[in-house]
Amino acid sequence: MPTTRPLPDTAQAWLVRLDDLWQHRERNRTGDQELLAQARVWLAGSPQAESVKAAVHVLIAYASWRSGRMVETVEHLEPVLTRSGAQDVWVCRAMNIRIALGFEVGEMAQSMALVEGQLTLCRALGETEIEACTLHDIGVMHNDRGTKQGRPYLLQALESFRRSENADGQAFTHLNLATAAVLAGDPDEAHEQLSRAMQLAQRHGLPYVQTQALAQQGALEVFSDPAHAEALLREALHRQARDGDRPMWEAVEPLARLLTAQGRVTEGTDLLQTFLADAQTAQLRTMVMHAHALLADLYESQGLPTEALHHLRAHVQLLRTLHQDEHEQRVSALEVMHRTELIRAQAEAGQRRAEEMSRLSRTDDLTGLPNRRHLLDAGTALLRERPGAVAIIDIDHFKAVNDTYGHETGDRVLQAFATRLRQGLPSAFVARSGGEEFVALFPGLSPHDACALLDDVRTGRDALDDLPGVTFTAGVAHCEGGDLKDALRRADLLLYQGKTGGRDCVISEGQRSA
């Protein structure tokens, strides 16, 4: 426990202790709060210890975010994100929380824009764990929206968590890869991911992950093996009660439906009533709302309209209250977030001007992407550290655009296309290598998964303003050992195959997509 160790007496010692707190932030939340309170007392006598102050703010922000206190989260992130010239690990962690919060309050575009800067900073600092957290959160966002695009991000996160030997991150990522597999209609893959999550949880003492894995496994088997599913779900509920975790709708809901389907309606109703009481005690209003809705259905099926109407009314009232509270909280959080962005922009204006000359030497003037020189220097180092896929992307029939609409319109098409790649491939290193040709590097990703991301961009082409629409062809190769030039040569050959085969496709070694 943190409180049994001697308290630090220097800024550096505090940073070491607070970093340890961050690494184990999910395992001892009570001890976390005690140590943070002691750190704030120490800071009162050492007001110049800015790095320690930032670390405390970030840890409090994380705890606030996990508890759903959005405005409080942003208020603690603000002083960290607006520190002039600060580019350290705690800024990186603060950006990670800010991005996750932005997803929750609906600031999708702003959060995705922050992802690029945050990943760049993580890579510059060598912070693979925070980079993995960001990629993990993007994957979870896609899972929550019911799309199938989360898997590549989760796989990249998993690879980074493995490199940093972060067992907690690996376990949670396997849980969410199981969800992605369910969305993709692959129950066998879901079972495999849950098995890996359970193994990690047992090896590293992560009871919450074990409980979640049991619940997900039980939900998967409700139709194929009801008896085993019931045993798994009841074991998950037993562990939840034993460990003092929050009430577990993930296990209660499928178990109640299973019991009802077997004609054991009274058992299902009793289970839900017990859960409802626990959720009300814990003030988990969303779970209470879900429980009322399912109880209304069960009582209606039993021919008890009075009880069904009671729970339906409670569900509707809670739904209205939650929507109103959520709206007010989002408005307040957005006001603080926008103020934070304004202050941060003002603080960084001078620094950006100083960095402009350096940026120009590495950047393509027209699109703002890295140029070929920077691609070969930074890309080689990036892929030497983390081998992955390399794609050459070429706009189809671009000469016809210039000939038909003029070079000014052609330049605008290139700018719009660069934006399309940046937004569609936020975890990739995207550069313009010349003319209408672009390069994307995917560290830690296979050509197969890189093709999936490129296909999402290719098939999602929408007309932009008054610009002519364009298609593209891409060739994707694997880069091993940082030999970027050889990978580019092979990708270029694949690109040529795609061009001669009809264009508007993504082609990799042994695979073609159109």
What's the short version?
The protein contains 21 helices and six strands.
Which features does this protein show?
514 residues; alpha+beta; Alpha-Beta Plaits; 7% strand
Description:
This protein has 514 residues and is of the alpha+beta class. Among the domains are: 1-126 and 326-360, no CATH class; 372-513, Alpha-Beta Plaits, CATH 3.30.70.270. It contains 21 helices and six strands. It has a six-stranded mixed sheet with strand order 2-3-1-4-5-6, with helices on both faces. Helix 7 packs antiparallel against helix 8 and helix 8 (150-163) runs antiparallel to helix 9 (167-183). The longest helix is centred in the middle third of the chain and has 56 residues, at 305-360. The protein is globular. The model has no long low-confidence stretch (mean pLDDT 84).
**Low confidence ranges:** none
**Helix-strand pattern, N to C?**
HHHHHHHHHHHHHHHHHEHHEEHEHEE
Straight-line distance between termini? 56 Å
**Gyration radius from CA atoms, angstroms:** 26 Å
- Principal-axes geometry comes out as globular
Give the structural class: alpha+beta
Number of helices: 21
Helix % is over 70%
Could you tell me the mean pLDDT?
Answer: 84
The percent range for strand residues is: 5-15%
Q: Tell me about the largest β-sheet.
A: 6 strands, mixed
How are the strands of the largest sheet arranged?
Answer: 2-3-1-4-5-6
Helix and strand layout, with pairings?
Elements: H1 11-23, H2 29-44, H3 50-66, H4 70-81, H5 89-104, H6 108-125, H7 128-144, H8 150-163, H9 167-183, H10 187-204, H11 207-220, H12 226-243, H13 249-261, H14 265-281, H15 285-301, H16 305-360, H17 372-385, E1 388-395, H18 398-405, H19 407-424, E2 429-434, E3 437-443, H20 447-459, E4 472-479, H21 484-500, E5 506-508, E6 511-513
Parallel strand pairs: 4-5
Antiparallel strand pairs: 1-3, 1-4, 2-3, 5-6
Helix pairs in contact: 1-3, 2-3, 3-4, 3-5, 4-5, 4-16, 5-6, 5-7, 6-7, 7-8, 7-9, 8-9, 9-10, 9-11, 10-11, 11-12, 11-13, 12-13, 13-14, 14-15, 15-16, 18-19
